[in-house]
Amino acid sequence: MKRQLYTEDHEAFRGVVRTFLEKEVLPHYEQWEKDGIVSREVWLAAGRKGLLGIAVDEEYGGGGNPDFRYASVLAEEFTRAGAPGLAIGLHNDIIGPYLTSLGTEEQKRRWLPGFCSGETITAIAMTEPGAGSDLQGIRTTAEDHGDHWILNGSKTFISNGILADLVVVVARTTPEGGAHGLSLLVVERGAEGFERGRNLDKIGQKSQDTAELFFHDVRVPKENLLGELNGAFVHLMTNLAQERMAIAVAGIAAAEHLLEITTTYVKEREAFGRPLSRLQHIRFEIAEMATECAVTRSFLDRCIEEHAAGTLDAVHASMAKWWATELQKRVADRCLQLHGGYGYMSEFPVARAYTDGRIQTIYGGTTEIMKEIIGRSLLG
Q1: Rounded to whole angstroms, how far apart are CA atoms 72 and 89?
Q2: Residue 325: which H helix or E strand, with range?
Q3: What is the pTM of this model?
Q4: Catalytic status, residue 368
Q5: Alpha-carbon distance 78 to 73, whole Å?
Q6: Tell me, what's the pLDDT at 47?
């Protein structure tokens, strides 16, 4: 069925994204995978092409277009290209809303122009060695010292951790406050006592720098408090729907692309003197995956429309994230199996998609957390 989600403007933007990928990303991607990090130059190139800060007001250097469908196009094309290492979605869709919705006028003028040009790369530091989805377990502290905070603690699994110039840190500002004693503090590159640990060695998304961060008596100016004091829990919950939608969009795009390349492969690959596609089991496998992708796509497109209109709730975003990423995982496994031994070879796209995509059911809230959110909404 023909998708009804996008207009001619969205499809024109898709062309811009594809050209950017072909020219600025794909020729360098293998080297980035070996290096474990992308170049800063590609971030600047993305800024020049208008791919950063699409939803940011024009007066700060952004595109001035909050329509989430543009973010969806970006996620789809980067996924199809097999290039998740350049974390533009994290920058635009997850961190951007914190800066635009919570930032003061002074903060916006200080941070957003670089955010949009690619000169300022961003990260958000929430997860700790002993605290993931459970915000009450966060141990990083920020003590009030009059005109500044003193920040101490550590974070791990931080995407863009090595490259980031601006890190939004979730810290405990009220010891007895539980999840409601947390605040968002912005730590800038070069702050004394702010150190980066190793670039973590992951099974997939090798070119996406993921790091440990350490804060030793870091002096954070009071004007770097983002949003309300002790308001981090509410701020985080407000923006999680978009984060989960961005992950879900990538999930269904990955599943569809894997289905496409596997369908082509089984038509060309022969076994026992005939194409694999002539075997009933293979046809059934393809039929099942195609049906699951079609049904999921229908639901995801509806969720994208709702989110673009500002009406998507956290429960349906959780449904989208759970279902699309679990589908991606199943399809990746089945498509690798259908490729046989070739599917286990790193040079085949299906192999990289298998390892790159495995994180999808984990970050942004695990599948189990998504089910808990949905279950609570239904059962109290």
Answers
A1: 9
A2: helix 314-339
A3: 0.94
A4: no
A5: 9
A6: 98
